[in-house]
Amino acid sequence: MNNRLIYLYTTLSLILLSSINSFAAMGPPMGPPMGPPCWPPPCVPIDGGVSLLIAAGVAYGGKKLYDSRKNKSNESEVSA
Known about the structure:
By secondary structure, the protein is an all-alpha fold. The protein has a domain at 48-75. Helices cover 65% and strands 0% of the residues. The protein is built from 3 helices and no strands.
């Protein structure tokens, strides 16, 4: 039993020690220093998702307004 534990611990430690290099990662290669990718520096792409979000908000607001007016006209017909 004791020999089995020694064999198991030795095997596990060799496996763990040999796998240490596979977890070591190298950084990106160093090149010449570059400036910002666009000019002026606050490069924020506003046209992509924000315009779709604004359009969805306008559509949602229009639907709410339409439903509100529709409910008011139905209430006035029922009470009359």
